[in-house]
Structures are given as C-alpha cells and as structure tokens.
Fold this protein.
Amino acid sequence: MFGLGKRDLTLFFIVAAMALFAPFILNPFPTDSGMAQFNAGYPDLMQRFVIFGILAIGFNILFGLTGYLSFGHAAFLGVGSYAAVWMFKLLSMNVIPAILLSMIVSGLFAVVIGYVSLRRSGIYFSILTLAFAQMSYNLAYSVLTPITNGETGLQITLDDPRILGVSATADGGIPVTNLFGLEMRAYETLNIGPWAFQFSVGYYVAAVIMLISFYVAIRIFRSPFGMMLRAIKSNQNRLYYTGLNARPYTLAAFVISGMYAGLAGGLLACMDPLAGAERMQWTASGEVVLMTILGGAGTLIGPVLGAGFIKYFENIFSKINDQVVHGWVSFLPDGLEDLVVALIHPFVGKGWHLTLGLMFMLIVIFLPGGLVEGGQRIARRLRRKPSPDDAKSASTEPAE
Amino acid sequence: MDAIILQILNGLDKGSAYALIALGLTLIFGTLGVVNFAHGALFMIGAFCAVTLNRLLTLSHQVVDETRTDFLGNPLKVDVPYMQDIFGEATGAAIIDWSVPLAILFSIPIMIGFGVLMERGLIKHFYKRPHADQILVTFGLAIVLQEIIKQIFGANPIPTPAPDAFRGSFDFGTMLGFDPNVIIYPYWRLVYFGFAAIIIGAVFAFLQFTTFGMVVRAGMADRETVGLLGINIDRRFTIMFGLAAAVAGLAGVMYAPINSPNYHMGMDFLVLSFVVVVVGGMGSLPGAVLAGFLLGILESFASMNEIKSILPGIDQIIIYLVAIIILLTRPRGLMGRKGVMED
Amino acid sequence: MSKTTLTRRGVLRTGAVAGAGVALPTIFTASSARAFTNEPTGGSVTLGFNVPQTGPYADEGADELRAYELAVEHLNGGGDGGMMQTFSSKSLEGTGILGKKVEYVTGDTQTKSDAARASAKSMIEKDGAIMITGGSSSGVAVAVQGLCQEAGVIFMAGLTHSNDTTGKDKKANGFRHFFNAYMSGAALAPVLAKAYGEDRKAYHLTADYTWGWTQEESIKAATEALGWETVEAVKTPLAQTDFSSYIAPVLNSGADVLVLNHYGGNMVNSLTNAVQFGLREKQANGKNFEIVVPLFSRLMARGAGENIKGILGSTNWHWSLQDEGSQAFVKSFGTKYGFPPSQAAHTCYVQTLLYADAVQRAGSFDPCAVAEALEGYEFDGLGNGPTLYRAEDHQCFKDVLVVRGKENPTSEFDLLEVVEVTPRGQVEYAPDHPMFAGGALGSCNPGA
C-alpha cells in the first residue's frame, strides 16, 4: 500500500497512530496528581515534538544516508521562519503560503550553501556549513536587523499591510495564524475523570505535515536515489570509478534536507508567529545533530525519537523546582525529605542541562545505536529469541 | 600607523589564545582522530584552576568588627585569610596576589591527571566508534563539566586579577620611535603572548626531538605498523591526551586575568577552536598554530573603524568568511595532511 | 461510572456532553461563558515565573526567583510582609489574591526568545498560569510580551531596559516597572556634566543589538544636549569576549570619555579590558580619562572586581536606599537568604505585588480589568518614591538612581554607592517621543 513494503507500512502506521493519539499517550497522569509535572501532552510541546521531528527526519536524509555531517542546518530553520513571518506580515495569516515560501526560500539557500560546501568532504564540509550558518546568525542579530528585527525577533504587528487579510481584527487585536479560518491556536479539552486531554488544531496540522514528510522520507530511503546516496556514504571513490558523478546526488540530498528544515522553521512560525535569530546559532545546529545521533542516525524513526527526547528534557525538566520536588516526597519524615530534595535538586530545574548531558553520555555508552537500538533490545528481550535477521538490522550503520 | 601596530599586537595576543587552544585540540582531533567537543571545557577547567587556587589561598576566618555594620545593621564580619595568619600580613597578601602564576604549577598535574583519566575512562572506548558517537559523548561530557562548575561557582564571571606587578601597560611605542603613550600595551597580555610562545615551542620540541615524540609521530602516520613493531602506542596516546589537556588548561589559567572566567567560556571558544584547527589543516600542528595567529590578526583588523565603515558588520563574520575562503582555495586548509578526516 | 465532560477552552467554555468513548470536540461552537484565559476556578491561583536559569544570566534569574518566592510568601500571609507594609495601597491583606492562595510555576527562558516563549506557553497551556512575569533581557521581554498579548494573559516584565519594550513593541497586556535607556541617559547626563565638565569628547562602544542601540541613542542625545561631543560610536559583536581590538583605538582617538553601552558579560569584559589598557590612568585633552557604564547591575559588576571603582552609571534600585520600603524589602530578603537583593530581584518583587494589588482593587482576574486598574495608577512605598504607571505606554515613572563604584567596599555586595537620586520629573518624556514612536498598545486581550 502507498508503495511501501510491509515493514515500512507497519512503521508508518505505528507513527501515524502515535501522532493521532499523542494527546492521550503524552498525558498519562491525572491533572491534579504530583506526577502531572511529567505530562507532555499540551499543545505547544506536542507541536514542538512533531516540528523538530520533521527537522531531524530531514537532517537524517543528508547525514544518515550520505554521511555528510552538516553543522549549519539551523540556518535553514531560521531562514524558513523568517520567510513565513514575512508572509504573515505582507500577504495573509493563512499558513499555506507561509509554509510554501519558507520551503522555497530555504531551498534556494540550500542550493547556494550546498553548491559551495559540497566541494569539500568530511570535516571540511562540516566547518564550511558551520561557517555559513554562523555568518547568517551573526548578521541576522546585527546588521540585518531591518529584515530580521535582530535580538527581539521578527513579530507580526498591528500595522503590517497583509494584502489578503486585515491588519488588525475588529476588536483591535493582531489576527491569528489559520488554515482557511481554522485557527492554529484553537484547542479543545476533553475531561475524562481526573484526566484532561487537549486537542489542538495547530498540533494536528503539524502532525499531518510530519506524517507526509515521514512518508516522503521512507520513499527516499527505499528509492534508487536513496541507494545512490548510500553508495556515496560507503565509498565515494568507487562511485567515481564507475563513471558516476556523486555531486548532483549529494546536492539534491542537501537541498531536500534544507527544505525539510525550512518547512520545520515555517511551521514553528505558523504555530507561534515569531522568528528569532538564535534559531540559527551553532547550538541550534548542534541540537539537530545530537537529536539524530541520539535517536539513531540512519534509521527512519530514530531522529524523531531523539527530537522528542531533547525537547522533553528542555521543557519538562527545566520546570521542576524545589517546591515541586518537596511535593513529591512530602510523605517522608522531615529530615529525610530535605535530604532527598537536596539530592534531586542539582538535576532538575536550573540543573536540567546536567541531566541532559548525563543522558547523552549514558545513551551513547550503553546504546551505540541510539534510542532505536534501545527499543530493539527491549523488543528482542521480550521475544526472547534473537534471530540473526534482527541482530543484523539492529546494528545501525555507522554514521560517517 | 600606530593603530595598525596596536591591532597587530592585539592580533598576536588573541592569536596566542586561539593557537594554544587549537594546538591542544589538534593533538587530540587532528592526530588521534577523536572529535573532542569537550576541549573547550578543558580550557574552562584550566581557568577555574586559577579561580580555585585563588579561593583556597583566600580561605578565611571571620573577625567581628564592631565599628562597622553590614547591610542588615548587624556588626560587620571581616574576612581574614588564613594565609595572612600563617605568613604575616604582607607575605600572605603577596602570595594571594600571585595566585594566578602559582596556579600554573597547581594546574599542570590536575590537567594531566584529568586528561589521562578522561582518555582511560571514556575516550579509549570510542577510538573505533563513529565520529558521530564521539561528538555525542564528548558534548555530553562538556555539558556535565560546565554544569558542575556552575553549581560550585555560580554563573557569573569571577574576577581573577593578575599580580599587581603586571598591572598597567608597557609603552611599546617609545621603543619604535613613537611619542610616549601612543602605543601602550598591557603587561599581562604581553606575558600571555610570551607564555604561549614558550608552550608552543616546548610542545614542538617535545614531539620533534624526543624518542617519545618520534614514536607518537610515527603512530599518527601509521598506528598499525607501529603497533606491530611491538611498541605500546596506546599508552603513548594516553600521555598525548594528558599533554593536550595540560596545554588547554594552561591556556585557560593564563587567560583568567584577561577576562573573568565563567562556566560557559569553554563553549564560547569551542566552535572557534574547531574552525582554527580545520583552517590550519587536519593533522598539522604548525597549521593549527599558524591559523590561530592568522585568524587572530585578521579579526583584530576587521574591528577597526576604518574597515567597519566600508564593510559594516565585517567584524561579526570575518573568521567564518576567512575560513570559507581558505577552505575553498586550499582543499585541506593551510597545511592539512591528505586523508585525515576527509570522509 | 466515569463522567466525561467536554469543555471549550481558548474560545468559550461549555457544554457537558455525557457519554463514553472518544467524542469529537466541537471546534466551532460559540456558546459559552468562560470570560478569559485561565480563569482561576478553585481555591488557588497560579502565577508563572519565567526567568533565565541557564546561560550567562542564570545568577540574575536565580535572584529574581528568590524575590518571587518571597513575594508569594508575603502575599499568602507568611514572613514579615515585606513591602506590603509600606505599600501605599492597603488592599492586600496577606490572604492570597482575592482570597485565593497564590501558587506558582517556574520555567527557564535560557535568555532566548524561542525558549522563553516555549516556557511561557507551557505555563499558560499546561499549568493554567494567569500572569507571566520575569526575564533578564529585552529581547526575551518583548517576545514574551507579544505572546501574552496573543494568549490573553498579563505580562509583568522583569529586568528589561530597552526603550522598545514600552516603545515600538509595547502591548496592552504588558507592563514594565523597570526603568529604560532613555531614563538612564536623562538621569546620568547632568551628573556626568557636573562631575567631568561640559566640554568632553565621548567614545561609545555599543553592543550590536537592539538594546545596545537604544542605549547608545539615549545617552548620546542626553550628553550631546549638555555640550559633549561624540567622537565615535563603534558597534561590538554580542558574542565578543575579548574587547582589546575595540579598546586599543580609543587610546589615540582624541576622546577623553569612554561610554560602554554593554550589559552583563559584555560589560564585565569590556570594562576589565579598558582598565587593563590603562585608560583610567590616562590623560587626554588635559583631563583625566573617564569610563562610564550607563546601566549598572551590581550582580554582574562583581565579575569586574576592582575595575568598577569610581565608575558612574545608573541603576533602577539599590539595597542601600534608606526609605522605608527599601529597608523593609532588604530586611525580609536578607533575613531569608542571607544577602541583599539585586535590582532585578527588587523589580520582580514589586511587579508581583503590583499585579496582586491591581487584581484586588479590580475585584477580578480578568486581564482587561487588571490592566485598567494598573493604568494611570499612582503609588508609593515600594522603594522608588512616588511612582506612576502611565496609561499611554504602560511604563512606570519614578526616580532614577545614579551610582558610582565604591572605593572601599565593606563586603562583596557593597559595590555601589548612590551618588544622586534623579527626580522623576527629570526623566519623564512624552509618550510619542521619537525614541519610543512606531508602536501601538492595541486593545487589551482577555483571551476569550
């Protein structure tokens, strides 16, 4: 079905089901319980999960298949966001033109940067992409402020022209991003017993786009084009000797990957119409790399898992403060309670970076294939009969 | 003219910091082939060795001064360092004053030990792993190290002044026939430059003229063959790692008086040091040093008003722009070796 | 038996649909009574404290958080009540806000607009926060203020000094107690002219982003009006750590004053570098060379150590102030934490009290009612003398402190001394002043 093999189809349906039921899956704890802190099923974070998932899927098309490690992918994310916000400012608050423009602009950017950077390989390629991205970031923050609004970030205002829309709504507010009238920020809450599940329009729009992106990525992975990219990864010289020029293929992969990033940037702006320069900083590029490796480079689902993992820590662990921890362990005797809080304290709230760093190390030390390998190990343990076939697919291709 | 000379001095000074960090990084990255994202953290830990020693020397007990009050109106507690109790007020103060130079001695064993520990405990297991895994594990380590420092010392920069003898500036211009006070340069920055030159020279001499260095250089070129000759190359690589950590740490110690250390200073230098190493060319120590000075000097020139008025914002991007130009004109950077990290 | 209710949030609340299974929500019904976003229904109300907990401003964020926790304690009737005792409005009784117990959630802005908005959104969407406050930079303040406007909650800005926050980026739902770059310039210039003379040539180093520019514009205009001449104004990259190549040209530029329009880490490094280059011992044009730091932060100034001695700058508030309000605040903060509060802590504490008081006076948590209660509100006893929350741009007008780095500090907190308290009249400006023009408050958004 859909031109997918059986395994891929199963994977696709699992991802689709997860995306559809995310508001339930991510909200396992009742709203009033102490563990509600760990619930991730609110619109903003769910949107981030799928949008950064798109970014990581796109990055993986380049890195996982060709082995070219771009350290400047955040530039495309930022460019896509700026393009989308400008579309909101000038044309209309409908998300479709914004998304299209963000993909086109980031695609053009990718053609230029890719054409130059792909003249080199290995670490030299990485540093070239890094240099382009850092230049974009530094300029966006300073000299290009008329276009990017610098430090503050590009926002929509009451006096934007908006040719196909209104500058301000009837009650004097800024109009809202929408899909033919469906407001991105609208959401419904479903209360079942002590649970509250939120269904957001923006999330489902983003999730549908993520599924389309995921589907396209599977097709690319399984296509002759994908085979060619793998060939480049395993031995580029041999490819040259057979009379094939690898450059057009890598450039195509780079541009596709850049457009995925632009799409993600555009979607970020659709959910929340703001584009900030720090989206292009090297730390943001590094984050994409980490997401992909953490999840499992070269695997289909890995990057999405990695993106979810990092965003979860950033948004959930940073919000746990001492008061919350005290709430959890209040059943303990006083002295012991303070001791436990003191022990947990360095790892949550303002210490969430520390936990994240430790998780990076633990995962890469014990799960060389990333989170995907973790999942496979658990699955194998459950089945209790490791077949040679499984073992083979578990050894994810080394990512270089 | 005086402006140009001043910027050359600035460039040499910046360049010596870049060159020192890049030298350590290229020992690990360009030769052992490990993508070490924790190298910036080693630099940061060096700087915090200086801070720690300063803290140790100023360990104090409190004496209540009834004549003055603190912000809540209680009698003021004045800190008296133990050093002043032990060595008398003047000597004690002098020891504290010289804490940064003393930290050089203090930091060498710590940094070497730290480097060896890091290599034996962690990096060793990643030599054969893909570069991507090395990035993830060293980046994780860098985050953990800087968060630990943050939890101990806080997020704000910590002033770590140079000894009083090195405050003020040296009138460089009079030596070159300029009027007094036209070209003056801070003493400590000149010390930093001289210090960097000595360290760089020492590392080169060590690799060039000792048997140990010869074996290591052979190992870089062909690890397998050296191993077949019955030489324990692994142990030597461990020592190299310790050496690289010490170079990064010393760069950090001496940098502390120039800019007050903070916990994220390593990350600030990380990207830059990778750019320097790659521009210099993978696997080339002289290349890294050369690129460090080149980028330092160009960065200084780019910040001159005359140049900024023609090309606004050039100082924001100069390093990256130069990196792109060099990598496009010279495929392996300035002096890179063929086949190192090219695939 | 499980009870299933379906409510419509974001637009309207309503409609219980009994039944089992997954009932598809009705997205476009318009029949409900929820008046505004996150209307508190139970016995408690949640405030969102969004401060930098990682990154260069983490210590400042930590101090803000301490102030917030103190404010919550006082609002709920704990502690010694702090500035609630000295506040001119007596509507707060220590029984929470409108009888509801005050609870709070915290988040990390990372001093990045994106992360700050994500954090604020999670507070609004997940935790039901009715008000967001905090922050340590203008970029974040403007970004979060925009978000709060769209979401329909009140934003009480923390430390943000750019003119834009209540200038071209002002919003009907956003309020700023902290002073701004214009006020710094207006307060500082006369003191500078008095201390250093009216015939001075100034060299500006400016952090190359929006706050730096408004700071440079403001101080330049104010000093030039008093006869100073601006020799050169140079932009420095935000990420710069070593400012030597920007400082060196100052030596022979003919200038005799260096103005550092830098904040935080930039300020610490540029000031340290300037002193290293011996600028302070230098003579130029027959006068002593001077350095000025328009916006001082005591917390960050510690990083510059000895170098700040004798340097003039401005600040929003300082713990050594002797008025009743400041004393009460320093006492309760100092007793709880063991050291005096920073200006960031002060403004955050005050903003929380002001919000609580406005709700109390309005008798409702409705953002529009709260905004109305804050607009044009005159109050006193919160450490800055008589203060006005101006209705036209939601900016507080109050006295501004001109401070100098202390020569003989008695402790690590005792770094600044107040040179002059510039009266409010001197720092006021018209709402349509050119430095603040170009934006509109819009209308208040209750989020429904």
Observations:
- Residues 164 and 271 of chain B are 33 Å apart (CA to CA).
